[in-house]
Amino acid sequence: SGSTTVFPNAPPNGIYARLTWDTPHADLDLHLVDLTRGGVFYTPPFDCYFANPSPNWGVPGSADDPSLGIDDIEGYGPEDIRFDLPAVGLYRVYTHVYQINEDPSPSARIELVLDGSLVLDRTMVLNSNGLVWDVANIDWTARTVTEIGTTWIGP
């Protein structure tokens, strides 16, 4: 019999992103940016991340807003972002190396779930403080994911 990955925090009809890594001391961060509203990486209000974990992207209440479940500041993760009722539009998922600490090259894993189904599962070695992994775009209108897979030095 085959194995099935279970995502207990994933909404049945929304977006869920989970970041894990393989080292005990590195601090990696997960970001979800609303590109439709002009969101910019590492900049509130349209980047959901450790400094903006529960942004208000819609009407009052939380169902139409993303939320960062936990900011794991030392080792392994997971960090996850849940978005129950995303608005029609384009979103981007990033991973950022906040601090490697004494871990030389953590291997980060991103899992993206749309409407309850795993649609992307990728791993990348991130070997520098400030390194940003530009993971993928999520087109919520079409319910598609387009992998980007590039890295660059950020903040």
Explain what the structure shows.
Helix content is 0%, strand content 46%. The chain is mainly β and 155 residues long. A hairpin with a 4-residue loop joins strand 9 and strand 10. The radius of gyration is 15 Å and the shape is globular. The relative contact order is 0.24. The model has no long low-confidence stretch (mean pLDDT 92).
Task: Summarize this entry quickly.
The protein has no helices and ten strands. It has strands at residues 15-21, 27-34, 47-48, 66-68, 79-83, 90-99, 107-114, 117-125, 131-139, 144-153.
Low-confidence stretches: none
Strand content: over 45%
Query: How many DSSP E strands?
Result: 10
The biggest beta sheet reads:
5 strands, antiparallel
Shape: globular
Structural class, from secondary structure content? Answer: mainly beta
Quaternary structure classification: single chain
How helix-rich are the residues, as a percent range? under 10%
Number of helical regions: 0
Name the strands of the widest sheet in spatial order.
4-5-1-7-8
H-E order = EEEEEEEEEE
Q: Distance between the terminal alpha carbons, to the nearest Å?
A: 45 Å
- Taking all Cα atoms into account, the compactness measure Rg is 15 Å
Roughly what is the average pLDDT, rounded to an integer?
A: 92
Question: How are the elements arranged and paired?
Answer:
Layout: E1 15-21, E2 27-34, E3 47-48, E4 66-68, E5 79-83, E6 90-99, E7 107-114, E8 117-125, E9 131-139, E10 144-153
Antiparallel strand pairs: 1-5, 1-7, 2-3, 2-6, 4-5, 6-9, 7-8, 9-10
